[in-house]
Amino acid sequence: MLELTRDMLTGVAKIDEQHKELISRINAVMNMGSKSASPEETRKTIDFLNDYVIKHFGDEEVLQRQAQYPKYEEHKKLHQIYIGEIRKLREEFMANGPSPKFAVSLNNSIIGWIVKHIKNVDVEFGKYCQTKGI
Ligand SMILES: [Fe+2]
Known about the structure:
The chain is mainly α and 134 residues long. It is 81% helix and 0% strand. It has a single domain (8-132), classed as Four Helix Bundle (Hemerythrin (Met), subunit A), CATH 1.20.120.50. The protein is elongated, with a radius of gyration of 15 Å. It starts with 12 loop residues before the first helix and ends with a helix. The relative contact order is 0.17. Fe (ii) ion binds next to helix 3 and helix 4.
């Protein structure tokens, strides 16, 4: 189970709330394996995660533009990479089901990536907001 730890808090209420929801949707995908869910259920759960990732990144980017965040463009590029990773995960699942490769992608490209992203670049944006008094 992935959890939102203290070092993942940005201090921006909207972002922190959305990160919680994001993590709960990632956990739902992780749980599909242990529940031996049907391929259809797993695909739907991946899509449910994907929808929220797109919404959340969009909202985060709006906040960054409003805050005139100087690292907006690089941050947005990272978001696009992640959306691509979820697409690959979905394709991998559709092609081979819950294979070891799927588990590795889920652990590294989806879970590992987002934890690092939140702890580093999102927290950095949170600090920027604090210094700007936003
Ligand atoms: Fe982000």
